[in-house]
Write a structure and sequence with these properties.
alpha/beta, seven-stranded mixed beta sheet, three-stranded antiparallel beta sheet, 12 helices, binds pyridoxal-5'-phosphate, transferase, EC 2.6.1.57, Aromatic amino acid aminotransferase
């Protein structure tokens, strides 16, 4: 099999692994100039930046003729203290997607396998394919939960990395402590398990473990966290991993030099210092999540219990029609054609419009 593709003599030869790569579909923005529209399609935080965070970001912006601190020193120190881990266990990147890509680059290439649940986060197939490795997708259970038993059985000599997205995007479902520990006990120690905890702060189920506790005596576990969701910094691109030294060191090697801007670093530090206020906002979103879930259940929908800032409606063939109905009503949701829609918990008014649309759709189509 050739390493490159493209027709002879026309343009640069590109790696064959790029052929047929799925493109990341960003959540659609709300249409400009249309009726009031709420963007419930990208799991963003609907609250605007906190004044104190904004102030620090703007101050950093005044020096953007300079490169940022390449090692993200202040942020790493702050994170190490916040999580009670050595600074050498913390590695930052351009969003946790950036860090996830570095983890795959550090572990898997052509001939190697990366296991993850499906459906799950749509970045996993992309970053796996870019690295030249092979995706092994393990279907979720009937209840849209990770099938950890099947994932353990999918491990081969070629497996290098396993993603466990907890809570899972787009279903919001979780794996709990006992089943996760049992799974980790079955994974060979030379296979890296990445616990993607992008929505950690939204979890209220006490049985869902904190990856930072799990990783401590497991050198083959890395925890991914982000400032994009609970902390509201999606546009600044900063995330991080907590992992034992060899893995964290590999992340520093695979990082794009100066990838995390000083604006992002300083805003992240300010956000950690404003955590009480930010987590208060998360609490309000969790209340809204409960309200939306109960509203949908009351309308007769079967909705998996979500521990994230979104809900999942399995609509099958009705998915596209439902998304179109939402858009006409003024909310943009994220359809996965033929499967279902993921709807971010946003502003109260946006959530209300979504609930009213879901109710009308249900009466009409079921
Ligand atoms: C949103 C999300 C991320 C975080 O993305 P960033 O690159 O940090 O913005 C990571 N993993 C999952 C599962 C997500 O849904």
């Amino acid at each position: 099999m050739s390493e490159t593709s493209g027709t002879s003599g026309t343009g640069p030869r590109l790696r064959a692994v790029l052929d047929g790569i799925p493109t990341y579909k960003p959540g659609r923005p709300a249409a400009a100039g249309g009726p009031v529209a709420y963007k419930l399609s990208s799991n963003e935080n609907p609250y605007p930046p906190l004044p104190g965070v904004m102030e620090r970001a703007l101050a950093a912006a005044a020096a953007f003729n300079r490169y940022p601190d390449m090692g993200c020193g202040e942020l790493v120190a702050e994170l190490a203290e916040r999580f009670g881990v050595p600074a050498s266990h913390v590695a930052t990147g351009t969003g946790s997607v950036g860090v996830a890509q570095q983890l795959v680059q550090a572990t898997a290439g052509p001939g190697d396998e990366v296991i993850y649940a499906w459906r799950s986060f749509e970045a996993y197939p992309i970053i796996t394919q870019v690295s030249g490795a092979t995706s092994v997708q393990v279907p979720l259970t009937e209840g849209d939960v990770h099938d950890l038993d099947a994932m353990a059985k999918a491990i081969t000599d070629r497996t290098r990395l396993i993603f466990v997205c907890n809570p899972n995007n787009p279903t919001g479902t979780v794996v709990r402590r006992a089943e996760l520990e049992r799974f980790l006990d079955r994974v060979p120690s030379d296979v890296l398990v990445v616990l993607d905890e992008a929505y950690k702060e939204f979890i209220r189920d006490p049985e869902v473990p904190d990856g930072c506790a799990i990783y401590r005596d497991r050198p083959n576990v890395a925890v991914l966290r982000t400032f994009s969701k609970a902390y509201g910094l999606a546009g600044l691109r900063v995330g991080f991993a907590i992992a034992h030294e060899p893995v964290a060191a590999a992340l520093r090697k695979t990082a794009v030099p100066f990838g995390v801007s000083q604006v992002a670093q300083d805003a992240a530090v300010a956000s950690l210092r404003a955590e009480d206020e930010l987590l208060g906002r998360v609490g309000s979103l969790v209340c809204e999540r409960t309200r939306v879930h109960e509203g949908l259940a009351g309308q007769g929908w079967t909705v998996p219990e979500s521990q994230a800032n979104f809900v999942w409606l399995r609509l099958g063939e009705r998915t596209a029609d439902f998304a179109a109905a939402c858009e006409r009503a003024g909310v943009v949701v994220r359809p996965f054609p033929g499967e279902g829609v993921r709807v971010t918990i946003g502003e109260t008014e946006g959530n209300d419009i979504f609930l009213r649309t879901a109710e009308a759709f249900r009466k009409e189509r079921y």
